[in-house]
Each structure stands twice: as structure tokens, then as C-alpha cells.
Amino acid sequence: MENQEEQLEMWDQATAPPETALTVEQMDQMIVQLREAKSMADIAEESAKTIKAEYDAKRKEVLDALKTLNRDNYSVAGAGMAYISRKEVYTVPKTHQEKTALFNYIKEKYGPDALMSMVGIHSATLTSWANKETESGEVMQIPGLEQPTMIETLNFRKKD
User: Fold this and answer.
1) I need a labelling partner for 76 at 20 to 30 A (CA). Which of 32, 49, 91, 158 fits?
2) How far is residue 144's CA from residue 133's CA, in Å, rounded to a whole number?
């Protein structure tokens, strides 16, 4: 019996959480340090937003300039090359009628399994699928989808 009590006591000690010798002063210091770190993170985040807004404004300025000059790219030795990328983007159908037309088209052409895999489709996947669908020229208009819009974005590659 004594052996069992010793085993139970050893087991209790093994599973008991370790005692921490944390003082109120240490806890106070941790909270002060947390507050300081949060303040620094907030300042850095605000600074990053400002820098990103400046970067986006410069990108728009260069994109507009390239379009004005009827150029797709412009390169400066030692700095880099800015170039315009263009892609067609389809919007996800919004009305019940448009969704029904699109889903009926998919179901009739590819079957119910394909339809089920695309029920929760998002914009990027829809655009990729629709581009493949119209690539051959066999399908000019997909029921339920509006005509795609052309999106132009400015890209930049650094050159040393």
C-alpha cells in the first residue's frame, strides 16, 4: 500500500504543472514591453502604408506615361525596366439568371461532376477557365458571363 502511495505521489509530481517564480514586477515589465512593441509595430505599419501609397502613385504615373507614349515598356540602364502586362478578366456572375445560365452551360457541356467542382468558383479560377474555354475560338460568348475586361498592370524588373 505504501508503495502505491509513493507511486501516486510520484505521478502527481510528474503531471503537476511546473512552479513558476514569476513576480508581479516581472509581469508588469512584460506588459510594459508588450505595449512598447505594439507602439513600434503600429508606427512601422503606418509608415509601410505611406510608402506603399507613394509606390502605387509612382506606378500609376509611369503606367500613364507609357500609355501616353504608346509604349509597352521602357528601360533605363542601371535602374531597370518598367513594362505593361495586360490580361482579360471575367467577373463572377451576380444575378440568379446569369448564374443559372453559366451553370447550365457547364453542366450540359461537361456534366454534373464538373459543375459541382465549379459551384464555389472565385474570380481568378473563373477567368482561367473562361480563357481556356474561349481560346480555341469555338466559343465566343459563355452564357451567364459578361464580356471580359482588359486589366493593365505595371511591372518592374531591377537591372544592375
Assistant:
1) 49
2) 14
Mean residue pLDDT of the chain comes to: 88
126: how many CB neighbours lie within 10 A of its CB? 19
Tens-place pLDDT, residues 17-51: 666 789 999 999 999 999 999 999 999 999 999 99
- Residue appearing with cell numbers 481560346: 135
CA atoms of 122 and 127, how far apart (whole Å): 9
Q: Report residues of the chain scoring pLDDT below 70.
A: 1-2, 14-19, 160
Q: Where are the domains of the chain?
A: 28-71, 85-158
Residue 86 dihedral angles phi and psi, to the nearest 5°: -125, 140
Closest by alpha carbon to 38, among 49, 28, 27, 46? Answer: 46
3-state secondary structure of 141: coil
pTM score of the predicted model: 0.59
